[in-house]
Amino acid sequence: GDSVTQMEGPVTLSEEAFLTINCTYTATGYPSLFWYVQYPGEGLQLLLKATKADDKGSNKGFEATYRKETTSFHLEKGSVQVSDSAVYFCALTLRVVRGKLQFGAGTQVVVTP
Amino acid sequence: SQTIHQWPATLVQPVGSPLSLECTVEGTSNPNLYWYRQAAGRGLQLLFYSVGIGQISSEVPQNLSASRPQDRQFILSSKKLLLSDSGFYLCAWNWEGRGPEAFFGQGTRLTVV
User: Fold this and answer.
1) Beta-carbon count within 10 A of A37 CB
2) Which residue of chain B comes nearest to A49, CA vs CA?
3) pLDDT for B52-89, tens place per residue?
4) Among candidate residues A21, A32, A38, the one with its CA nearest the CA of residue A76
5) Which of B88, B102, B2 is CA-nearest to residue B50?
6) Among the listed residues A43, A62, A47, the one whose alpha carbon sits nearest the alpha carbon of residue B36
7) Residue A99 in contact with partner chain B when CB distance is under 8 A
8) Which helix (H) or strand (E) holds B94?
9) Cβ contacts of B46 on chain A, cutoff 8 Å
10) What is the C-alpha separation between B9 and B93, in angstroms, rounded?
11) Please, are residues A97 and B51 in contact by the beta-carbon 8 Å criterion?
């Protein structure tokens, strides 16, 4: 079946460091891909998305490129801040049912001053 | 504008007691609605989704049920809670004319004691 695999955490970084969170997927069709962020005690917020191969999603300094050849959608940020500490989820949908997503396990990111 | 409301924010219930969590949305008609559960330290598991009034799809067998008595209302229930029902419950939705992503409520933290 369809699935999303992302790197395990926690990932601990110093402020202004470069962040990469790896995400790969398995899907029978051509999914749309997403990154969501969850701050402590809150629901999930959509961070960015890409709906077709080679699309780059970007938001708040974060970027991810939809790589069909490697079935990947890695999240990157050039200079993290303490406020970026959160859990990040990679997800996909095949759009058969609008809004029905398959999530990865989540990666906790801790940014220290 | 489109908004989602989920309550209560936190809930502590004894084993064997009933459960009712409510999610309502505003600003559009005939949305797709979702219930997810996030167990401690784990990813998101889709429990139920609904594409219309009275239409409920269950993703995993469990001690819970869902209902959609009105177009913009989605309820998660249990007749008798188990310890394993503890977790963070998230309602999500998508509506016609939006992209493929889902939008989440703030979640309910359920602790079964």
Assistant:
1) 21
2) B101
3) 999 999 988 788 999 999 999 999 999 999 999 999 99
4) A21
5) B102
6) A43
7) yes
8) strand B87-94
9) 100-102
10) 18
11) yes
Interface of B with A (CB under 8 A): 6, 32, 34, 42-44, 46, 49, 51, 90, 92-94, 96, 98-107, 109
For residue B43, the chain A residues in CB contact (below 8 A) are: 89, 103-106
B109 to A41: CB separation less than 8 angstroms, yes or no:
yes
The pLDDT tens digits of the residues spanning A73-105 come to 999 999 999 999 999 999 999 878 888 899 999
Distance of alpha carbon B69 from alpha carbon B52, whole angstroms:
10
A43 interfacial to chain B (CB closer than 8 Å): yes
Owner of token pair 């999500």: B92
Yes or no, beta carbons of A32 and B44 under 8 Å apart: no
* E-strand stretches of A1-113: 3-6, 11-14, 19-21, 23-26, 32-38, 44-50, 56-59, 62-65, 75-77, 86-93, 102-103, 107-112
